[in-house]
Specification:
The chain is α+β, with helices and mostly antiparallel strands. It folds into 5 domains: about 80 residues, no CATH class; about 100 residues, Roll (Chitinase A, domain 3); about 100 residues, Chitinase A, domain 3; about 80 residues, no CATH class; about 90 residues, Chitinase A, domain 3 (Roll). It has 26 helices and 20 strands. The strands form 6 sheets. The protein has a 4-stranded antiparallel β-sheet with strand order 4-3-6-5, sandwiched between helices. It has a 4-stranded antiparallel β-sheet with strand order 8-7-10-9. The chain has a 4-stranded antiparallel β-sheet with strand order 16-15-18-17. α3 crosses α20 and α4 packs across α13. The protein is flat. About 20% of the residues are buried.
Length: about 625
């Protein structure tokens, strides 16, 4: 190559590299692909996108990179604990990454498609374990075949299940399984159910439990999950149902009039497991709860909507919808599906495909004499002292010899396993190990994920040194910061008040009468709530404007009582004194003060870093990605 053409080549190479650089931070070059990977990953998690958002995200990313550069300048990336942590993470990440490639896209897509539907089915089981003798297997198969003939002849499936099914409890439920979706049954059973039309009986299906006949009763869309809160009024044997129902109805009325659901749940719900958290239940899957409770919950449409009281064997429930969670798009649940497929028996279908793909991608060559001729291998092993360097196979010209296989045999127990199986496992191990060594160069996603964790760990470690370790101990500087920002840590005008909420004008008069007779709040509550536990609710404290609707409508004067009506609710607001604006004590603002001080330290740190490491943004590249 002439000097002229070599010079042109170098210039073009420089232009290409420069064109891919989005930002220079000191000596660090941030590439367009790296930034877009981070940005797009953020958007996949639901962050907004747009022209302004890209610039905003770039500014945040530059700040992030500045801190990482500082961490490296401090030598934090050279510490043994850090190196060990990243090495451990790479091992875990590689396992997950290889797993995703081992599980075929076809199986993941199949699982996702099935998750969109619910199957309601009944079945008949004839028990036969997977290691049953041929004679026992034949007996079981003949039995299920006779039942299949009866079903095909038109005999009622429920009657057949009651009479013949060997599943425990099948006669009581007539073989009914109820609703299920993907991963809830063995894979052969699931596949048969999803491939059998509604209303029909399947062909005979074999699982590890035995032989099955499956009748698909219904197929419907899977509504996904739901999160609700409830107030439970339990029905005790000594109570009349009407009393519990009346109490539930009264609470429901109060909720419709604006009573706070969380507070009502804390005060009145008999569900001791959820009352302290405002009645919030665990996220529910359709078909896994009481049918009446489920029907009422899924019938709610808008978050915050409340159901009328619903009766179940537990008592009366008032249900509040928090959110409905539809089946997410495939891209958001793919990793989860990959893990579930890998842990499931269906994963065995993808393993052979994965190994064959690795062989093709990595120029796998095998000694022809070993292909399906493992007696040759056994002969070689018998004379390994002479043939130890004989080639077994190569992966991208990396040779694997007989001695390598011998080492594998020493390290791995192979008792009772055929030579063919052991050799196949050895080949698989070598192919996967080779793939593991080249993940960063083959897959940009892997490289960026590993670097994301590396830099995220450095960010945490350096932030601990620069910010978090300062705030609790640096009391003098913290107090100085607090004193310099006193205007930010002050109470506005407040009313020291007690608010008595009742249901009617009549109850308000009863309340005022009791107060005239100097009856205390505890006695008044006990007396007025004898017939109904929510006739009277009392709130007390020091409140700013805008924190309580009844107080906002009252006249703000010391030693003044006001009667306030909002809708059907009535309250007596008793203001004992008006408190002027005052500075909050440091104990009252400790949490927000620490947060503000950490933010201040971070801002000062970034100022120093930006002065130390000049930042140059390639505006042409930014315009290209910001179109």
């Amino acid at each position: 190559m002439s000097k002229f053409f070599f010079s042109i080549f170098i210039i073009l190479l420089g232009i290409s590299a420069q064109a891919q650089t989005l930002v220079n931070i000191g000596s660090l070059e941030l590439s367009v692909p790296e930034f877009l990977w981070a940005y797009n990953k953020g958007n996949a998690l639901g962050k907004p996108s747009g022209k302004n958002d890209i610039r905003s995200y770039l500014n945040m990313y530059i700040n992030f990179k500045l801190k990482v550069i500082d961490a490296e300048a401090m030598g934090l990336d050279k510490k043994k604990s850090f190196i060990d942590e990243i090495s451990s993470y790479r091992t875990r990440l590689a396992e997950r990454f290889l797993l995703e490639r081992e599980v075929s896209d076809k199986l993941v897509l199949e699982a996702y498609s099935r998750s969109l539907k619910l199957i309601n089915a009944s079945h008949i089981l004839i028990l036969c374990s997977s290691n049953a003798s041929p004679a026992d297997t034949l007996v079981a198969y003949q039995k299920i075949s006779r039942i299949k003939k009866l079903s095909d002849a038109g005999q009622d499936f429920e009657e057949l299940a009651t009479q013949f099914s060997e599943e425990l409890g099948a006669s009581e439920v007539k073989g009914l399984l109820g609703d299920f979706t993907v991963f809830e049954m063995s894979y052969p059973f699931e596949s048969t159910a999803y491939n059998t039309p509604k209303g029909e009986v399947s062909q005979i299906t074999r699982t590890r439990f035995g032989y099955h006949l499956i009748k698909v009763n219904d197929v419907k869309d899977n509504p996904g999950q739901i999160e609700i809160a409830h107030i439970l009024i339990s029905t005790k044997p000594a109570d009349a149902d009407k009393e519990s129902q009346a109490k539930a109805v009264e609470i429901y009325k109060q909720l419709l009039q604006g009573a706070n659901f969380e507070l009502m749940a804390r005060q009145f719900s008999d569900d001791t497991f959820t009352s302290e958290t405002g009645g919030v239940l665990q996220i529910m899957n359709f078909g896994k709860s009481d049918k009446k409770l489920e029907a009422a919950a899924f019938a709610l449409n808008k978050p915050g909507e409340i159901s009328a009281p619903v009766y179940t064997p537990y008592g009366w429930h008032i249900i509040k919808l928090i959110r409905k969670i539809p089946i997410p798009p495939l891209q958001l649940v793919k990793t989860q599906l990959v893990n579930r497929v890998a842990a499931d028996e269906r994963s065995l279908l993808g393993e052979d495909y994965f190994i064959e793909r690795l062989k093709k991608q990595n120029n796998f060559y095998e000694d022809n004499s070993l292909k399906n001729k493992h007696e040759v291998l056994m002969e070689k092993l018998a004379s390994a002292d002479k043939n130890g360097e004989d080639l077994l196979f190569s992966i991208n010209k990396e040779k694997v010899v007989l001695n390598d296989f011998l080492k594998f045999l020493v390290l791995h127990k192979t008792d009772g396993q055929s030579p063919e199986y052991v050799y196949k496992q050895f080949v698989k191990m070598k192919l996967i190990a080779h793939e593991d060594q080249h993940l960063e160069e083959k897959y940009a996603d892997f490289k960026y994920l590993l670097n994301e964790y590396r830099e995220g760990t450095l960010l945490f470690n350096v932030s601990e040194i620069k910010i978090w370790n300062h705030t609790p101990s640096d009391s003098v500087k913290l107090m100085r910061f607090y004193n310099s920002r006193s205007a930010f840590y002050s109470w506005k005008e407040r009313a020291d008040t007690r608010i008595y909420m009742v249901n009617s004008v009549g109850e308000l008069e009863v309340l005022k009468g009791m107060q005239k007779h100097n009856m205390g709040d505890e006695g008044i509550l006990k007396e007025m709530n004898k017939s109904n536990p929510i006739n009277l609710i009392i709130n007390s404290g020091k409140f700013e404007r805008g924190t309580n609707p009844f107080l906002d409508r009252a006249k703000w004067e010391s030693n003044l009582d006001s009667e306030v009506k909002i809708g059907n609710a009535i309250a007596l607001v008793k203001i004992s004194r008006i408190l002027p604006p005052v500075r909050k004590s440091i104990s009252e603002v400790q949490d927000v003060l620490l947060t503000d001080y950490e933010k201040y330290l971070e801002e000062e740190w970034l100022k120093d870093l930006k002065a130390k490491y000049p930042i140059t943004i390639n505006q042409a590249q930014l315009r290209k990605i910001n179109r």
